[in-house]
Amino acid sequence: AQTVTQSQPEMSVQEAETVTLSCTYDTSESDYYLFWYKQPPSRQMILVIRQEAYKQQNATENRFSVNFQKAAKSFSLKISDSQLGDAAMYFCATLIPGTASKLTFGTGTRLQVTL
Amino acid sequence: EPEVTQTPSHQVTQMGQEVILRCVPISNHLYFYWYRQILGQKVEFLVSFYNNEISEKSEIFDDQFSVERPDGSNFTLKIRSTKLEDSAMYFCASIWGRRGYTFGSGTRLTVV
């Protein structure tokens, strides 16, 4: 069974500053994918960034980047130049390819962005 | 950009009633899913559906739940006799290949 742990229930960052959200996971699989999803107050699930485990290069999407440490099973999300619109719940998730290809989510980190 | 559409956005039902949540996945996607999120908790997998049958279901997905794709476009989740603890946000999602899920905007189910 896969487990995903987000040890920071809440984080706060000032506008324009940088924040890092932590995520660790546990899997015995060698082929898997990692995701960060953003959930604003509307509760929609929005894909922020994805990482293939076989790729050593860390994924980046504009102001969002990850620090993927495969040996440590760590997958942190860095948000640069934080904006008020970044305030949301952030969920880390793993996906094991297969017939089901289901996502396993962490418990989430609530990010507040202050002026 | 293609979207997964869910209706209704909010459903209120009385305990013991049947409820059907509807989803229209992205047309060329092959795998369909239902997830549940109880308020303030993490998102949990309910069921996956591929080639017109369930490919995997979680412990949550008991005999009270069923899914079907009746007409090749809609994908429905039925709860036969709702309980208070079924109150949650229900997300439909679809996937093509390994690029990641596209989630619908969710249906908030309130059981009273």
Descriptive overview:
The complex is a heterodimer of chains A (115) and B (112). With 115 residues, chain A is an all-beta fold. Helix content of chain A is 0%, strand content 51%. Chain A contains no helices and twelve strands. In chain A, the strands form three sheets. In chain A, strands 2, 5, 6, 10, 11 and 12 form a six-stranded mixed sheet that branches. In chain A, strand 8 and strand 9 (74-79) form a beta hairpin. The N and C termini of chain A lie far apart (41 Å). Chain B is an all-beta fold and 112 residues long. Chain B is built from no helices and eleven strands. In chain B, strands 2, 4, 5, 6, 9, 10 and 11 form a seven-stranded mixed sheet that branches. The relative contact order of chain B is 0.34. The model of chain B has no long low-confidence stretch (mean pLDDT 92). Chains A and B meet through strand 5, strand 6, strand 10 and strand 11 of A and strand 4, strand 5, strand 9 and strand 10 of B.
Percentage of residues assigned to helices of chain A: under 10%
Unreliable runs of chain A, pLDDT <50, ≥5 residues?
Answer: none
The helix/strand order of chain A is EEEEEEEEEEEE
Radius of gyration of chain A: 14 Å
Number of strands of chain B: 11
- Quote the distance from N terminus to C terminus of chain B: 36 Å
Helix coverage percent of residues of chain B? under 10%
